[in-house]
Queue: 2 jobs
Job 1
Amino acid sequence: MINRRQFLQISGAGAAGLLAGGLPSLVNIESARAASNPEGKFIPDLDIALKATPAEVPILPGNPTGVWQYQGHVIKGNRASLIQLERTYLGPIIRTHTGQKVRIRFTNDIADKTIVHWHGLHVPADMDGHPRLVIPSSETYVYEFEVRNRAGTYWYHPHPHGMTGPQVYGGLAGLFLVSDDEEKAAGLPAGEYDIPLVIQDRAFDNRNQLIYLSGHRMEQMTGFLGDWILVNGHPDFILPVATRAYRLRLLNGSNSRIYKLAWQDGSPLTVIGTDGGLLETPAQRGYVMLGPAERIELWVDFGRYPVGSETALVSLPFEGGMLGGGRMGRGMMGSGAALPNGAGFPIFKVRVNRQEEASLELPKRLSTIKRYRAKDAVNAGHPKRFNLVMSHMSWTINGRMFRMEQVDNDEKVHMNSLEIWEFINEGGGMGMMGGMNMPHPMHLHGKQFQVLERQGVLHDGYVDEGWKDTVLLMPGERIRILVRFGDYPGLFLYHCHNLEHEDMGMMRNYLIEGSAASV
Ligand SMILES: [Cu+2]
């Protein structure tokens, strides 16, 4: 569990002063590797050392589990900016404030090449963790960027091509939380009432060691599924709460599992935030579909339960999760689905264990979101179309696979231009895999975007009204998004965040062309 005292400290004092002198500056694009820029134009407010390293942690009773883990410490700045979760493989929670300048000295202490991607953050291209930037074992990559995102629940994870799935699965992931003045003014539950919850699935052998892909191509086509549901790295997670309001920040940190989130007792979910921070106003949903890499923030008032009672957040059964089957381990090729995508199960229990009087009320207004208008898009009449299709036994985008530096003409955009992109998941692959239907959570690097429209909807548990960096497309769905290609030129990724799909090449570059001077 989190060190709650630390969590409390951070949410209170401190970050306001960091805004001083925080005017956006484009010179930082130059400072990709600070080591080679010793005169240092970049003066960080927060300077962190972070490493990826092998470790052993207790997960199941008995033997500890061998994992990879992000470990870090603060070199300069508020020590409470890093919150080390206890007894978990998850990396430290990094807490920052909009406008803060952050340096992260990342050292690779695992045997494989790796690099860190700051999922959801708007950073220069060479700070974004593109796979071309991987570093070998024992090398260090220095990140320097200003936090320009609004308050929200972002996260970080590896991004080496072909190895993202196993590295995230092996334990490499952590939350990156941003706060700002607008969020503070909203008056949300803070400190120990602001709870991060990372939901992941894992499979273990009889010595408590992680099992990953068995080598079957089909397993990679569907994505890897574990039969243990972990929350913050723990099975059978229980959240002790008081009779008052909480803010829950949920991240689906799973490789390919989708959750249909609901309260066990049928109460509606009160959604206050998505990938890119707070909604304008709270939204009620009977359930919420949460695809890999997506985040959702909930307001929940446990004051409606008596002390001593329990409830649970569950994943409801749903259709369309996959073509049948699940994990094909344990010698039951094809049918050994211990827990298929779309199965129902509890995620974590909530135990109301103490009375607390608190008068916090759900705010009517949470934040301001300036809506993009479709007619302002440079391609308003002809959106870029991306078909999510199977080709030559691989998942692809428009039939194209990832090539490290390759960008086609239709993948070039102009800096600061607003575009409409359309993702189409018609379902039904080609060739031998004909008829294969799979959900695809599509992610754009470096940008928060807005959902313009969604068609062919199979599930109504989407929260499309907030800022997003990842959108789930169930089979048969198509989504149009509005995205502004902000102020950093260069090469960024868009890809499916089913990590097995991504590793097999369901990923492409897009290139933002233009100079930093244009507006
Ligand atoms: Cu996919």
Job 2
Amino acid sequence: MEGRSRPTVWILGDQLNRGVASLAGREPRDCRVLVVESDAKLRSKRWHIQRLHLVLSAMEHFAAELEEDGFEVDYRRAPTMGDGLRAHVEEFHVEDVVAMEPMSWDGRGMLRRLGVETIRNNQFLCHYDEFAEWADSRASFKMEDFYRWQRTRLDLLMDPEGPAGGRWNFDHENREPPPLDGRAWPEVSRFELDAIDRELLARLPGYWGAEPDGTWPVTREQALVRLDEFIATGLHTFGPHEDAMLAAEWKLAHSGLSSSLNLGLLHPSEVVEAAEAAYRRGDASINSAEGFIRQVIGWREYVWGVYWLWMPDYRRANSLGAHRRVPPAFTGAASTEMTCVASVIGRVHDHGYAHHIERLMVLGNLALTAGVDPPAMTEWMWASFVDGAEWVMLPNVIGMALHADGGTMATKPYASGGAYINRMSDFCSRCRYDPTKRTGPVACPYTTLYWDFLARHETTFKSNHRMAPQLAGLRRLKDLAAVRARADEVLAALDAGAL
Ligand SMILES: Cc1cc2nc3c(=O)[nH]c(=O)nc-3n(C[C@H](O)[C@H](O)[C@H](O)COP(=O)(O)OP(=O)(O)OC[C@H]3O[C@@H](n4cnc5c(N)ncnc54)[C@H](O)[C@@H]3O)c2cc1C
């Protein structure tokens, strides 16, 4: 029968690009394409509606684009991924199925079990095998060292005499508190929802969060618009304000590109090349271009590498023995008077998004100091953010935010009291809690819990020389007993959704 021996290329939901290794160079007559929408995945978490819509819409739009290009696409809804593949193989009498290496540990196991041939993943600039080789060749593998290695081998922001601008790192220039002059921040285009989106939303009832409003690109064309916009209007202010937070501003000068990168709509190389080109044209300062490129070829690729290096044990790491449930103020089960949490959770509700410092120093910091269970926190964040995926969530939540890996990734916990949030935002000036107070009814919960956290884990942190100044501060506290008593009240109120 004609077409019987054509191989099937199975495109997974985060490989939505004609350039992925399994599709690159293929013509419509060479293969058939399979896309499976798994009901089990759809029901596996309490997804934010924008997250679910984004992934499914992007999958359907990509399938439609391939069909327009002449590919035969089998877009299949099935109880599980495996069921979808088996039904496809049976219907089309397929002998060979190929896929690009998936982005998750479990996905890799599934493809192996199903006998699917895999092709090396080309969605990152550093494959995890290369990362493992790099890591293997050194005693410690710091992100900064990896980033410099990437810059050099990829020849990004490099001048003949060394790193562009004469330095590798411009973090010092990039930690400005937020400007409070009421300035306008870059706007982002909203993309009109089409028939695919409307049909999708009609069959996805019962999820939480604000309905999709076209903020997140669902096609490569839209993602390229977002990239161009960011380069033209956001990049030049990205650096100085990348750590700042403002109650009235959900994105400041951040790029909003993570979901497009993580779904494969954009490749990291085109994103960083566009940023470097802006710097070379004189449209972006070195600290902004460097700060942004560091995020993409440094942090993003680093967490991808460590995920594969440390899985599967990494997902169970809980070195601080934290078992508290995710606060109701995060999940939406309760409101909160902590302005920082209310503002950030408001963005998560409205957009399925918060920027890096909000994730780390508002949500992560509170979860760390309160002792929230790492798998539960990972699960909640994964379901709540439009860019969530296990490979990026685990190192960021387990390693960076919760210090649950005992310091394998970040040598020191990212714990801080209200003073940091006060310095980097305008939240505290409009909050009923006072960041300078650690006891009493108006003490900032962050400040109280910070000291309580240090006291709870003093023995563990004693051997960490980077924690010496904090522990010295703890020992100087005259009112530690009162702080710890207040911490008990704060934790009870946090659990009860009454803070
Ligand atoms: C607790 C926690 C959870 C996180 N969860 C996710 C997640 O599920 N998915 C995700 O993509 N990012 C995650 N991050 C990283 C980072 O917060 C987001 O990538 C970023 O906020 C996305 O917004 P943006 O595109 O506007 O980023 P920008 O600030 O504009 O940064 C540019 C790009 O750099 C990359 N990047 C920057 N920092 C990181 C990082 N630490 N890890 C990986 N990539 C990075 C992203 O691709 C991002 O699009 C998490 C960080 C923390 C602390």
